[in-house]
Amino acid sequence: MRLRFCYPGSKQACDVVIGEPPEWAIEIKMARPNGDNGKPDDTSIKDMLSPFASDRSAVTDAAKLAGSPIAPRRAILIYGFDDPRRPLAVMVEAFELLASARVRLGPRQAAPLESLVHPVHSSGSVYAWEVRPHT
Asked: What is the residue-level pLDDT of the chain in tens, covering all 135 positions?
């Protein structure tokens, strides 16, 4: 496993690459509606859903993966934390809708994060999708 592995022909790096030669390339994003202090983090929506490459959102990371020969299999993983004012599930559904306009997402895989010891982020989920180019 390698962290921060450069995309072919680019200075941009993929978060995790598994295998030698690479078998999987995985981009990882955190989705948290609140900062560590419990105050709303207004950049969380941009970090997940922005269509602009310069924002390096989950949507643009999925498109970057799909368009790269970095590894034969590619995935995006989003982990995040619950907040009743900004439900994580709603952000994930919005990600799927927007990303699906640019790439083919495999079936959603999900696992809960429970009984976390952080005072603000006590529960959440991890989501992952295989990413493929549109054919």
From this structure: 889 988 998 899 999 999 999 999 999 998 877 666 667 677 788 999 999 999 999 999 999 999 999 999 999 999 988 887 788 899 999 999 999 999 999 999 999 887 667 556 567 889 999 999 987
Question: What contacts 27, CB < 8 A, 6 or more positions away?
Answer: 14, 15, 58, 61, 62, 64, 65, 75, 76, 77
CB 76 within 8 A of CB 29: yes
What are the residue boundaries of the structural domains of the chain, listed by start?
2-133
pTM above 0.85, yes or no: yes
